[in-house]
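As described in the Methods, two query proteins were run sequentially through the folding procedure within a single session, without resetting any intermediate state between them. The first query and its resulting C-alpha cells are shown here.
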Amino acid sequence: MDTRTELRVRFTDQERAGLSALAAGLRGVAEADLSEEDALVAALEFALTRLIDDFEVPNPTAREEVQRARDDLRAHWIRGAATL
C-alpha cells in the first residue's frame, strides 16, 4: 500500500541547483540511482538529526516532535541508503 502524499514545492533556481547537487553527491556516495526526491528526504533527516544532536530545542513538546519524526522517518526508510 502506497502511503505517499504528493506535494508541490517551488524552488528558486539556486535552491534547485543545490538539490540537484545534493542528489548527485548522494548518488556517488550511495552508489545508487537516487532522485532529487531521495535527496530532499535525506536532507530532511539530516536537519532533524542536527536539531536533536547539535541544538537544544527549548520547547519540550517541539523537541519530542522532532525526535519522534526523525525516528519514524528512519524506521520507515523507503529511500534506500540516501542518508547523510
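Immediately afterward, the second query was submitted; its sequence and C-alpha cells are:
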Amino acid sequence: MTSYEYRAPVEMSAQELFAFLARPESLPQHLPGLSDSTPRIDHDRRSISWGENHYRGELTVAEDGQGLSEVVLAVETDDPGDVRRELQEAVAALTHRATAEADVDAAKNQDTWY
C-alpha cells in the first residue's frame, strides 16, 4: 500500500471543526471507501480513523491559533488513481461545508461573522 497525506489550514476553531467532522453523516460522502467502514472517533486527540482491506486512513484536527485549525488527512491505499487530488478535494469540501454551516448557525443566533 502507498501512503498519502494532505494538510490544510482552516479558519475555524479545532473544537468546532472536529465537532462537525465527527458526526457520522459528515465524512462518507467525501472519503471514498468510508461508506462501508465504521470510523473510530477519538475526541481527546480530535482524530477519526478507519480501515478496510485496501484503504485505511486517519483525519486529525489540530488547533493552529485562535479560531484557526489545521486538518491532516492521511490514507494508505492500493488505489492507482489520483489520490492526492482526491484528498485535496475531500478536505476542501468538508471544510467548506463546516464553515458554511457555522456561518448559517451564527446568522440564526445573530452572532454575525462580519
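The helical segments are 14-21, 83-108. We note this only descriptively and draw no conclusion about the first query from it.
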